[in-house]
Amino acid sequence: MEPRRDPRGALVRPYAVTRGRTEPLQNIALEAVLSCTPTQSAEARFAGHDKYRIASVCEGRAQSLAEIAAYTRMPLGVTRVLVADMVAEGLLTLHTAAPATGFAARMNLLGRVLSGLREL
Amino acid sequence: MDFANYDPAGANRSREIISAKIVIAGGFGVGKTTLVGAISEIQPLTTEALMTAAGVGIDDPSKVPGKETTTVAMDFGRITMAEDLILYLFGTPGQTRFWFMWDEIIRGAVGAAVLVDTRRITDAFAPLDYFENRNLPYVVALNRFDDAPQYELEEVREALAISPDVPLVMCDARRRDSVKQVLVTVVEHAMLRLQAEHGFAAPVG
């Protein structure tokens, strides 16, 4: 059945999968990486279709929030709400994005990125 | 939590994976996605954000009757450098009216490259001003188009009023080695900036 065009526009419809919630439990960065073990993925089967899709995308290969949104074709804001829920529920493991503070930590990361680029 | 110690096969204890990102900016059609695609290990992906009611007055609703939201698309790529290190390249949306999206893209970024097309040099003004204001280390890369007028780098530096400490390089966004050099320049510049901020080198001038 084709969804009827809503005269009020499509503003809220994408958030139906989050039951209307637009604020994530935590604000996960675009490039923050998430991973999912087979155990977590098996558990996610019971967490609903969208969460299981997200778990499947991350199983076997860690993916950023941006990649999860792209592969599941869900808008970024919706994906962020669902992913933050899954982290809280233990269905996904959230890894750290680049350290924002600390001279030594930032220099170390930049140095690693630089040698990584040079080795390409 | 009751099951805090229940951790079969280290399910929630996996090794940390650090991700970093570099931002690729520039006007519409300047070759941002081409650049990302030349070096990314995956086909550039697109993620979409919905522009909500706040942006409705800015978009032109007459073009899409009945549509009150717009999707803002951004392209990005990935370079897995090690098991625990991934670099992401994010292209900014072409239209500068999507500034709210830029704030999200640059948060925590290593630095940025502003791609310039010499046929539409003024397209670079908005991203240059933006990165200057946000204090994000950036470099300027002239994307060489075969049919575009060729300028000396210093002519372009003058035309864009780029300060002498900002690196300016020539590139071909289609070529992997050329793109690699642009990214190396971004990271080197970010390191110099960070060192200067911590008093490791005397500021120029």
Automatic annotation (TrEMBL), chain A:
It comes from the Bacteria. PANTHER family: DUF742 DOMAIN-CONTAINING PROTEIN. This is DUF742 domain-containing protein. It comes from Micromonospora chaiyaphumensis. The lineage of its organism: Bacteria, Bacillati, Actinomycetota, Actinomycetes, Micromonosporales.
Automatic annotation (TrEMBL), chain B:
Coiled coil: none annotated. It comes from the Bacteria. Keywords: GTP-binding, Hydrolase, Nucleotide-binding, Receptor. GO terms for molecular function: GTP binding; hydrolase activity. SUPFAM superfamilies: P-loop containing nucleoside triphosphate hydrolases (SSF52540). The keyword GTP-binding applies. InterPro entries: Gliding_Motility_GTPase, Gpn, P-loop_NTPase. CDD domains: Ras_like_GTPase. The keyword Hydrolase applies. Belongs to the GPN-loop GTPase family. This is Signal recognition particle receptor subunit beta, a GTPase.
